[in-house]
C-alpha cells in the first residue's frame, strides 16, 4: 500500500474539473469500471519494464486496489480498470485524489492523469519527472477570480501563493540584466533531454546581394531595419550622393528618401562593446534600397556598408562593385548582426525577459486564476531551458563564449545597453514597433514576410486574448477588485533590485496597475506573442543561417577590411573563418536549437490548464483561426521567391521550450 505522504502540489490543486477528452466532447467509452489515461514524456527503466502504480481515492476516502500502468514514452497509455479493483469505491464515485509511484528503476515524466467512469471524470495535472517515491495529487482547480471565491477558498489560495513565492524566488540580478529565477523549481524540469540551408553561390553575385538583404527582413534579426527619413542621417556614412546614384536607381538621396526607398540597419548599440580577447566586433551601418525594377513589387538590395560608426580613412564605405572586399564586408556585418541576434533578439528579449514574467505569474496568480490558466501553456519548459542554458550556453567558457566574437561578457553588455530602452507598449507590441521603425507600409517595403505573417498571427492572438479576458471581466469593478491580478501587474513593473525582486519591465500598460480591460488585453497579447511568435522568429531559422559559416558567422578571425586598395580573394574569406572545431560546434548547437519539440500554438494538450467549458469554446475559435491563417500563409509561400515559414502557426510552439 502506498504511503499517505502528500506533496506540495496537493496544496496547490483545487476541485474536480472536466477531463481533456470531455473538453473536446469525446467522452471515453468505458467498457467496465473506470478508465485511466496516463500521458507521458520521457520514460526509461534500467532493469524492468517501466511501470507506474496508482491508487484512487473517493470523497469518503475509500480507495481502489493498486493499479499498474505501463507508460509509453511520449504517448497516452490507457488502462481499463475492472470493478474487482474498485469494489470499495463503486462505479459512481467521484475521484478526489490519486496516489502514484514509479516502479523500481523506472524514471518517467508524467504530464497528466485522467480518470473516467460512465458518470464522472477528473483531470490531474502532474508535469514532473517521477521516480520511485510517492506522490499525491488532487484534481485541477476550478477557474475563478479571487474576489468571487468563498472565504475558505480565498484562504487556501492565499496559502498556496505564499508557498509558491517561497519556491519561485527572484535571484538578486546582475545589474542591468533581466529578472531570473533564483533556483529552478523541480516541476519546471524537462520531460526529456534536448539532445542549412547554404545560401552562397559565388557565380550569382547579384542574387547573393538580394539574399543578404533578405536576411534583414526575413532572417533571424528582422526587427532592426528601419526607414531612412532624414538626408542628414546619411552623413554618418562617408559616401556621396553621386557615388550612390548608380546603386539607387539613378535617384538622389533626397529622392530615394521621399519615395520611401531607402532603409538602414544601424548597429550602433555594439559600439564600445568589448569583445573577447583577440577578436574584433564591428558596429556597422548598412544602407539598403528597394529597387522597384526588380521583380513584380521590387526587391530590397544592399548598396553600402560601413563597418564602424565614425567615418575614417581606415573605415571605408564598401559598395557592391568592390568584389571580394564587398563579400568580406557583408560577412563582418553579419558577424555583428549575429552578436545582436543572440544577445538581444533571441536570448535577451525572449528567454530572459519572459522568464521574469513566468516567475511573477507563479508568484502572484493562483492556479485557479483564469489568467494563470491562460498563460501557463506559454511558459512550458521556459525556466528549464534557461537554467540549462546557464550551465552550457551562457556560462564562462561555454558555447556562446566560444563561438561568438562578443563572447559572454560582451553579449551581456549588449543586453544591458538595450534593456534600458525596451518597452512593452512599443518593442513588445508588434504593430506599434513596426510603425516606430517606419516599415509598416507594405507597398514601400515589399516582401517583408516576417512583418506580414507575424502581424496576422499577432491579430489572431489579440482576438483570443480579448475574448478570453472579457469572459471573466465583465466590468472595471471585476478588474479593480482582483487583488491577484493587481499584485501581478505591480511585480511586472517592480524594479529588479527591489527587496523581493521584480521584473522591472518598462512600458507595461497601467504602469503597475491594470486599470482597464484593454490594458490587460495588450499585456497578455504581448506576452503570448513574445513566447510564441517572437521566439519562433528568432530561433527556428538558426541552422538555416548559421549552418553554413560564411553565410552568418558567429565568429570571425583577424581584422575586418580597413581599405579597398588591396585586392582580396577567396583566400581572405577562408583565413577569416575559425577552425573546423568551432564551425562544427556552431552547426551542432544551432541544429539542436532549431528543432521544434513541443506542440504548436493553440494546441494546449501538453498543459491543459484551461478547463472552463466557456473558455474552451474560445480556445477552439483561436485554433480554428490559426489553422485558417496557416493555410493562407502556406498559399502565400507557394508564390514567394524565398518562402518564410517560421511564423506559420503550424511551425510556432506555444512556449520558449528550446
Report what the structure shows.
This protein is α+β, with helices and mostly antiparallel strands and 658 residues long. Helices cover 38% and strands 13% of the residues. The chain contains 20 helices and 13 strands. It has helices at residues 8-11, 20-23, 151-167, 205-218, 241-244, 253-258, 323-364, 370-375, 382-392, 399-403, 407-419, 430-437, 449-472, 476-480, 483-493, 517-539, 542-546, 570-576, 580-593, 613-637, and strands at residues 34-45, 52-58, 67-69, 76-81, 95-102, 106-116, 121-130, 134-137, 226-227, 262-266, 285-291, 299-306, 317-318. A 5-stranded antiparallel beta sheet has the order 9-10-11-12-13. The chain has a 4-stranded antiparallel beta sheet with strand order 4-1-6-7, with no helix packed on it. Helix 7 (323-364) packs across helix 11 (407-419), helix 7 (323-364) packs across helix 16 and helix 13 runs antiparallel to helix 20. The model is unreliable at 1-31 and 191-197 (pLDDT under 50).
Amino acid at each position: 500500500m502506498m504511503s499517505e505522504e502528500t506533496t506540495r502540489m496537493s496544496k496547490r490543486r483545487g476541485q474536480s474539473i472536466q477531463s481533456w477528452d470531455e473538453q473536446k466532447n469525446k467522452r471515453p467509452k468505458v467498457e467496465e469500471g473506470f478508465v485511466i489515461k496516463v500521458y507521458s514524456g520521457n520514460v526509461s527503466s534500467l532493469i524492468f519494464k517501466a511501470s507506474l502504480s496508482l491508487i484512487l481515492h473517493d470523497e469518503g476516502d475509500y480507495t481502489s486496489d493498486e493499479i499498474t500502468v505501463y507508460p509509453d514514452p511520449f504517448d497516452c497509455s490507457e488502462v481499463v480498470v475492472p470493478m474487482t479493483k474498485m469494489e470499495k469505491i463503486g462505479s459512481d464515485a467521484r475521484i478526489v485524489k490519486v496516489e502514484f509511484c514509479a516502479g523500481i528503476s523506472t524514471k518517467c515524466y508524467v504530464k497528466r492523469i485522467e480518470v473516467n467512469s460512465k458518470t464522472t471524470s477528473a483531470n490531474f495535472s502532474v508535469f514532473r519527472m517521477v521516480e520511485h517515491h510517492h506522490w499525491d495529487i488532487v484534481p485541477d482547480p476550478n477557474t475563478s477570480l479571487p474576489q468571487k471565491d468563498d472565504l475558505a477558498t480565498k484562504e487556501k489560495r492565499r496559502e498556496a501563493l505564499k508557498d509558491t513565492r517561497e519556491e519561485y524566488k527572484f535571484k538578486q540580478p546582475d545589474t542591468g540584466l533581466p529578472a531570473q529565477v533564483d533556483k529552478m523549481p523541480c516541476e519546471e524540469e524537462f520531460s526529456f533531454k534536448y539532445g542549412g540551408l547554404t545560401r552562397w553561390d559565388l557565380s550569382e553575385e547579384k542574387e547573393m546581394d538580394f539574399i543578404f538583404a533578405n536576411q534583414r527582413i526575413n532572417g533571424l534579426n528582422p526587427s532592426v531595419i528601419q526607414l531612412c527619413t532624414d538626408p542628414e542621417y546619411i552623413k554618418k556614412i562617408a559616401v556621396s550622393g553621386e557615388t550612390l546614384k548608380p546603386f539607387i536607381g539613378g535617384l538622389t538621396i533626397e529622392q530615394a528618401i521621399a519615395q520611401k526607398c531607402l532603409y538602414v540597419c544601424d548597429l550602433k548599440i555594439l559600439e564600445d562593446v568589448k569583445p573577447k580577447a583577440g577578436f574584433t566586433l564591428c558596429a556597422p551601418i548598412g544602407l539598403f534600397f528597394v529597387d522597384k525594377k526588380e521583380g513584380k513589387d521590387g526587391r530590397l538590395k544592399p548598396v553600402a556598408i560601413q563597418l564602424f560608426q565614425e567615418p575614417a580613412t581606415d573605415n571605408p564605405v564598401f559598395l557592391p562593385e568592390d568584389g571580394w572586399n564587398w563579400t568580406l564586408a557583408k560577412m563582418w556585418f553579419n558577424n555583428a548582426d549575429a552578436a545582436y541576434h543572440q544577445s538581444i533578439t533571441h536570448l535577451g528579449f525572449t528567454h530572459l525577459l519572459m522568464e521574469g514574467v513566468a516567475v511573477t505569474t507563479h508568484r502572484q496568480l493562483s492556479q485557479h486564476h483564469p489568467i494563470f490558466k491562460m498563460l501557463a501553456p506559454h511558459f512550458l519548459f521556459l525556466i528549464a531551458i534557461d537554467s540549462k542554458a546557464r550551465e552550457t550556453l551562457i556560462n564562462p567558457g561555454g558555447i556562446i563564449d566560444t563561438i561568438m566574437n562578443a563572447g559572454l561578457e560582451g553579449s551581456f553588455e549588449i543586453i544591458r545597453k538595450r534593456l534600458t530602452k525596451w518597452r512593452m507598449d512599443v518593442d513588445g507590441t508588434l504593430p506599434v514597433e513596426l510603425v516606430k521603425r517606419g516599415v509598416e507600409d507594405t507597398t514601400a517595403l515589399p516582401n517583408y514576410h516576417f512583418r506580414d505573417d507575424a502581424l496576422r498571427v499577432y491579430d489572431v492572438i489579440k482576438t483570443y486574448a480579448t475574448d478570453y479576458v472579457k469572459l471573466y471581466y465583465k466590468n472595471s469593478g471585476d478588474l479593480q477588485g482582483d487583488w491577484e491580478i493587481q499584485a501581478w501587474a505591480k511585480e511586472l513593473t517592480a524594479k529588479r533590485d527591489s527587496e523581493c525582486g521584480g521584473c522591472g519591465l518598462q512600458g507595461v500598460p497601467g504602469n503597475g496597475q491594470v486599470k482597464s480591460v484593454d490594458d490587460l488585453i495588450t499585456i497578455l497579447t504581448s506576452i503570448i506573442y513574445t513566447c510564441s511568435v517572437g521566439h519562433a522568429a528568432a530561433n527556428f531559422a538558426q541552422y538555416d543561417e548559421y549552418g553554413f559559416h560564411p553565410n552568418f558567422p558567429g565568429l570571425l578571425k583577424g581584422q575586418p577590411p580597413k581599405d579597398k586598395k588591396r585586392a582580396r580573394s577567396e583566400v581572405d574569406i577562408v583565413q577569416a573563418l575559425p577552425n573546423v572545431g568551432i564551425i562544427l560546434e556552431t552547426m551542432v548547437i544551432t541544429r539542436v536549437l532549431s528543432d521544434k519539440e513541443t506542440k504548436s500554438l493553440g494546441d494546449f494538450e501538453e498543459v491543459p490548464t484551461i478547463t472552463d467549458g466557456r473558455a474552451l469554446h474560445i480556445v477552439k475559435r483561436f485554433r480554428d483561426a490559426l489553422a485558417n491563417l496557416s493555410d493562407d500563409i502556406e498559399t502565400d509561400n507557394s508564390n514567394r521567391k524565398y518562402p518564410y515559414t517560421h511564423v506559420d502557426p503550424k511551425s510556432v510552439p506555444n512556449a520558449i521550450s528550446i
